[in-house]
Each structure stands twice: as C-alpha cells, then as structure tokens.
C-alpha cells in the first residue's frame, strides 16, 4: 500500500524541479520530501526521479504517474475546498502564473491588500517570461495579455487598461549621440534589449504614429534576461549605456525624476492591459473565488 500523503509531495518536487525549491513552496524540509519520494519509489518498486547534484527530473514512469496524479489531486483539492463554504473566511493556497512585467507592475497594487483582507489564504506567485500551460504547471489562474489568452478560459481585466511601449535614454547619452527623430534613426544607436527564456529577443520594437506602423530591429549593445534582469537594462540606460525599450510604467519613475528622457514619445504604441484568466467551471476553489471577486473591486 502506498501512503497517499507521499503523492502530493512527489508532485511538488517534480513541479518545482528539485527538493529545495519544493521545500520552499510546501513548507516541508528538503530531507522530508526526499524521504517521501524514496518511500514512494520503494512501495511502487520503480524509480520515479533521476537525481543529480544539480537537478531532479522524472523518469518515464515518473512522467506517466505525474500525468495521472495532477488531475486526480486537483479533484481532491476541489472536494476538500467544499468545506471552505462553512468558514468565516476562505483558506488555502492560491497559485498564479504571471509574466514578469505583471509581477512588477500590476500585482503590487493587488497582493498586499488582498492578503490583508484574507489572512488565511497563502498566495504563491510564479513569475516567468515563457507561456506555459497554467493548469499543467499546477496553478489555479494566471495573467496574460489578450493575444495570449486561450479561448476556453474566463478572463477579467486586471491592471491598467491601456499601456504603452516606451523608449528612453539618459539625457547625457542623447546629448552625446543625438536625439532620434524617426524610429529608423534607432538603427544608428546603442540599444539595450531583453532575451526571453525561449531565446527570442525583445525586438523588433514597434512604433506607431498617424496610422503608420514601423518595426525596428536594432543591433543590441546589451542583452539581458527578461525573466529577471530588465532592471539592469534600465540602470544601464540611466548610466548612459544606450536606449532601453520597455513598458512605460516600468520606466516611469526614472522618466519622472529626469534620470531618463523619453525617446520618440509621439511614436509610442499603446496596447490593451492584461487579464486575469482561469478555467471556466461551476466550482471555483474558495481562494480563487476570493481573488477574482477582490480584483473586480480594484480601481485602476
């Protein structure tokens, strides 16, 4: 017989990609999780994880098991969530998969007041620059822009409803190198770009004015990871390394205090803001229902 308590711990290790990261997510010790997986392997008589000093990955048997366990454990969580209706305040864990920009620009206005209003809910935010299957990643909901939304999902607005892609540079850099008057002028400038985890750069940069759309793929002077190093690109721009292109709200503090100067502001392109999305189903887990209702009350 298998100890059923070992199953969600095995799932947590696989989803986190290691024992230490799973320990941070679950609140368990890494050694306790390792023992749970070892116990499960012993009972089943098959190896579930390939372990090295640097990584943990499921074997073929482990992948087959996780494919079946994920939906089953989700059903168990939903069944247990029924009792939340009898509590004065919902409890449990809410997992969100969000873009790095949303974690930086949208969630700070939502998370602190939400946690204050619902102290029994634990919120877990997975911020990444790749687009993953939210449910397969073990998350309850996510944030995406409308062009990335899946049709079978329910989506509600979250964050500013209009955003702009902005370009900016330090005044000293522009005094030294000249101020672009047309997007094509950027091809002669030092530009600071990001690279997504899939390998693509954050280019071409797209500009729009009077119905004309111009796409520019500048030669990068600096390339940083979009998953965690875009602030380095901003700081490099402030120090005069070149022109950075990013969400206007991300650059706004440096624009407001003069450390950065807008570049081609009349060409900045607007786009619609992000959405909170989640599966359409009759029963939402209580933590997710509380978050959805809370987001609807926030004024942007």
Sequence stretches where pLDDT stays below 50 over 5 or more residues: none
Briefly note the CATH topology name of the largest domain: D-Maltodextrin-Binding Protein, domain 2
For the record, what CATH class of the largest domain applies?
Alpha Beta
Radius of gyration: 23 Å
Blueprint of the fold:
Layout: H1 6-16, H2 19-26, H3 30-44, E1 49-51, E2 56-58, H4 60-81, E3 92-98, H5 100-105, H6 111-117, E4 121-127, E5 141-144, E6 153-157, E7 162-169, H7 171-177, E8 191-195, E9 205-209, E10 212-216, E11 220-225, H8 230-238, E12 243-247, H9 248-256, E13 261-262, E14 269-272, E15 275-279, H10 286-297
Parallel strand pairs: 3-4, 3-5, 8-11, 8-12
Antiparallel strand pairs: 1-2, 5-15, 6-15, 7-12, 7-13, 7-14, 9-10
């Amino acid at each position: 017989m298998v100890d059923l308590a070992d199953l969600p711990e095995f799932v947590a290790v696989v989803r986190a990609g290691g024992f230490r990261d799973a320990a941070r997510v679950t609140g368990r010790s890494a050694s306790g999780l390792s023992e749970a997986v070892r116990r499960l392997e012993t009972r089943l008589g098959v190896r579930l994880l390939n372990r090295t000093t640097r990584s943990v990955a499921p074997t073929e048997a482990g992948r087959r098991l996780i494919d079946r366990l994920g939906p089953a454990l989700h059903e168990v969580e939903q069944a247990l969530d029924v009792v939340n209706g009898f509590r004065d305040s919902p409890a449990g864990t809410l997992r969100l998969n969000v873009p790095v920009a949303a974690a930086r620009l949208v969630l700070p206005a939502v998370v602190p007041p939400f946690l204050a209003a619902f102290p029994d809910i634990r919120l877990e935010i997975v911020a990444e620059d790749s687009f993953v299957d939210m449910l397969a990643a073990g998350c309850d909901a996510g944030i995406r822009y409308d062009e990335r939304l899946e049709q079978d999902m329910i989506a509600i607005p979250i964050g500013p409803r209009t955003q702009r892609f902005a370009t900016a540079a330090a005044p000293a850099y522009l005094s030294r190198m000249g101020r672009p008057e047309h997007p094509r002028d950027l091809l002669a400038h030092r530009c600071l770009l990001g690279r997504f985890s899939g390998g693509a750069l954050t280019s071409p940069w797209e500009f729009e004015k009077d119905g004309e759309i111009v796409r520019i793929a500048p030669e990068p002077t600096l390339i940083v990871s979009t998953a965690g190093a875009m602030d380095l690109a901003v700081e490099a721009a402030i120090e005069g390394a070149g022109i950075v292109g990013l969400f206007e709200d991300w650059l706004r503090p440096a624009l407001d205090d003069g450390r950065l100067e807008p570049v081609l502001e009349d060409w900045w392109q607007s786009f619609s803001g992000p959405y909170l999305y989640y599966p359409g189903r009759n029963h939402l887990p209580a933590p997710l229902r509380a978050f959805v209702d809370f987001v609807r009350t926030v004024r942007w």
